[in-house]
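Hi V.,

Quick status before I head out on leave. The structure for the redesign project is tokenized and pasted below; the design run finished overnight.
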């Protein structure tokens, strides 16, 4: 009963944070990027929680249970990706005012490329959000012994209450609470207790094979695949871009992302060590994904078990809310606003879109038994189709709209083809998809000329996407003279 009360108090605290956020969300900018007013602590907390979802927490412990300390490679790839966003993108995004991936495409390449990228971004954010809702349902099912559909609805309803009420302000306030709960639950409670239960590090080394303590024990091919998928994919994750723009200055955005990356790397190591120690105390689990909950129930007393389960909930809820508001922001800003004008830039329009996205996510979570395959497809498509064009839009002034659309289509087509040939979980789809996008993007850029309206401009000098004409590039032989390009 004590553990259940702790979980209930945590859920009520999230709703209370939603009310406080609602009082601050007076404009669309407040709702989508917290008014761009976050200081170092709140910003770093928010950036960290978007990384540390169910995959990083429950999945990180599962990988540690199977492979030892090398199981941290998934979270490490995400951590490097979040730091890279601050180093590479903070300056350009702050100076340009862009906070969606499709808007970046539209400003350089015109509206068709923005619409095309919106489809991929919304699919990705929605499906990963669905995965988090299912994860929340799993945790609540364990704690309260209720049906998974009921548990998922309770978690979803909590997320919707605080997210729709205050948007990014509410999400940020809950992120700060979730950041502290995760830090306390994983670092201060679960890690030391399970290592002690296993007899300490010396006993763990004596009990387990040497590969459990090798940094490459999971396999170099898996390490390479995680890096390609999660490092590159995370750099163009809409949720990350949106959190970046919540910082009150470019300096806070850059250094906060770097600090967040360091924290997340330590979190990944902690999860892998928890799983490694769990392999000693629970050596015969049928399903490694149960390691987090089973280890917690074995080593934690009443009260602390509730705290650690709240940490798992926090991981899923913070990621889910960030992803869902990311999907709704893209729909509102890049799809609906150009059609409906300023009336679709209001807080009310943002709330309606967010609630609609949430309803779709809940319905999908009920319709599928496992969302892992869909999430894998979405993540592969995001990296394979959009990484090269987005980087080209921001860093290569010579790049053209024809090249962008060609790169997106080539990366998507090759990625899906290799999913059919090699399987959903193979390494080839994202590798060959990114390679195809790069070849097509560079080739088409060299044989076409950019739109004269934007040619030669740095990314931060580009006009708002509403002011960029809907051109798709001009063949080199027919091009009008353009400004010098770099």
């Amino acid at each position: 009963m004590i553990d259940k009360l702790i979980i209930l108090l945590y859920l009520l605290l999230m709703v209370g944070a939603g009310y406080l956020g609602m009082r601050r969300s007076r404009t669309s900018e407040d709702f989508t990027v917290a008014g761009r007013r976050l200081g170092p602590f709140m910003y770093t907390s928010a950036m960290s929680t978007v990384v540390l979802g169910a995959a990083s927490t429950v999945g990180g412990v599962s990988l540690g249970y199977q492979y030892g300390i090398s199981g941290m490679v998934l979270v490490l790839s995400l951590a490097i990706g979040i730091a890279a966003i601050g180093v590479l993108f903070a300056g350009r995004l702050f100076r340009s005012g862009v906070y969606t991936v499709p808007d970046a495409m539209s400003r350089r390449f015109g509206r068709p490329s923005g619409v095309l990228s919106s489809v991929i971004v919304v699919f990705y954010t929605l499906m990963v959000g669905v995965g988090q809702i299912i994860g929340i349902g799993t945790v609540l099912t364990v704690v309260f012994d209720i049906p998974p559909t009921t548990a998922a609805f309770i978690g979803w309803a909590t997320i919707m209450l605080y997210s729709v009420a205050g948007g990014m302000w509410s999400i940020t306030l809950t992120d700060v609470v979730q950041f502290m709960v995760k830090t306390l639950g994983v670092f201060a409670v679960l890690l030391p207790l399970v290592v002690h239960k296993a007899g300490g590090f010396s006993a763990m080394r004596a009990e387990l094979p040497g590969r459990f303590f090798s940094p490459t024990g999971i396999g170099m091919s898996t390490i390479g695949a995680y890096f390609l998928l999660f490092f590159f994919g995370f750099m163009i994750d809409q949720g990350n871009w949106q959190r970046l723009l919540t910082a009150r200055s470019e300096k806070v955005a850059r250094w906060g992302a770097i600090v967040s990356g360091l924290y997340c790397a330590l979190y990944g190591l902690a999860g892998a060590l928890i799983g490694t120690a769990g392999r000693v105390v629970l050596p015969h689990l049928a399903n490694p994904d149960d390691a987090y909950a089973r280890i917690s129930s074995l080593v934690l007393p009443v009260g602390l078990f509730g705290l650690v389960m709240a940490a798992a909930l926090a991981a899923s809820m913070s990621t889910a809310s960030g992803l869902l508001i990311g999907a709704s922001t893209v729909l509102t800003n890049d799809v609906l606003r150009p059609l409906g004008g300023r009336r679709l830039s209001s807080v009310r329009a943002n709330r309606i879109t967010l609630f609609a996205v949430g309803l779709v996510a809940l319905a999908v979570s009920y319709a599928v038994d496992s969302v892992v395959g869909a999430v894998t497809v979405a993540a592969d498509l995001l990296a394979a189709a959009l990484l090269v064009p987005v980087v080209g839009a921001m860093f290569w002034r010579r790049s053209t709209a024809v090249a962008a659309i060609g790169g997106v289509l080539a990366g998507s087509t090759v990625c899906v083809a290799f999913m059919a040939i090699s399987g959903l979980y193979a390494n080839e789809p994202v590798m060959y998809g990114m390679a195809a996008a790069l070849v097509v993007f560079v080739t088409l850029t060299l044989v076409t000329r950019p739109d004269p309206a934007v040619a030669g401009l740095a990314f931060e000098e580009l006009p708002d996407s509403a002011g960029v004409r809907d051109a798709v590039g001009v063949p080199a032989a027919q091009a009008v003279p353009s400004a010098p390009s770099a």
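Above is the designed sequence. The first strand starts at residue 448 and ends at 449.

G. will cover questions while I'm gone.

Best,
W.
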